[in-house]
Amino acid sequence: MNGVIIAINIPLGVLIAETPDHRCVQLTFLSRVDAQVGDELDGDWDALGPQTVSNVTRGTDLQLKLRATDLPRAEAVGSVTVV
Q1: Which three-class secondary structure state does DSSP give residue 70?
Q2: Angle at 27 between CA 25 and CA 30, to 5 degrees
């Protein structure tokens, strides 16, 4: 399923993607990630754990770990913010 990156924190190694049905998912980096807000990702948002996610916008694959699904947008974005 596709999702669009709505928040990313490179130093923390985490990003948030929002699906067309407004589900937010939290993913952590397992390797170097070349991505930014607005990039479209294609992955299996129902399978927790490590997976290869396609960055459709950049034409690359990312090694990520799906940590959480069905997060409210505010909670998801807050999880990548450093105060």
Answers
A1: strand
A2: 165
